[in-house]
Structures are given as structure tokens and as C-alpha cells.
Amino acid sequence: RDFLPSSWRVFHPTWVDIWTYIGTIGIFTSLFLLFIRFLPMIAMSEVKTAVPEADPHYGGRATGKEPAR
Questions:
Q1: Which among 31, 40, 53, 69 is placed 20 to 30 Å from 24, CA to CA?
Q2: How many CB atoms lie within 10 A of CB 52?
Q3: CA 60 from chain center: how many Å?
């Protein structure tokens, strides 16, 4: 055996190598789709309404979103 990289040949995958690669792509895709399906989503409108109340100095002052009287 020659250990010099310059004397190595090009790798030709077998059918086992190809199906292993395809299987890993399939498992990753399946797990990714399950993850985005069951990930608890948070609506931006809920985050925007919670931001003023999250301020420790929030005293219930007007935020500019209340209707004018």
C-alpha cells in the first residue's frame, strides 16, 4: 500500500455508500419537518404586546396604541 496522497485513486462509491447517503438525507429531512411541525410558534403580535409590560419601569403609561378620545 502506498500512503502518499498523490498515488491515491478516485473514490467510487458502492450502492451501500449511495443508499447510506440518501438515507441520512431522508432522516435529516424527516426530523427537520417534525421539528418545524411541533415547534411551539410565538406570534410576533404577542411578542410586541408583551414587550412594554416586560419593562421593569413600565407604569401603565400610554404606548401610543390606545385609541384617541
A1: 40
A2: 13
A3: 36
**Is the Cβ–Cβ distance between 39 and 45 less than 8 Å?**
no
- Whether pTM exceeds 0.70: no
60 secondary structure, DSSP code: S
Number of domains the chain is built from: 1
Segments forming the whole domain that contains residue 48: 14-53
The answer as to whether 64 is a domain residue is no
Report pLDDT digits (tens) over 21-69.
Answer: 999 999 999 999 998 888 767 776 676 666 766 666 766 655 555 555 5
Are 63 and 52 within 8 A, CB to CB?
yes
Within a domain: 32: yes
Cell triple for 61: 403609561
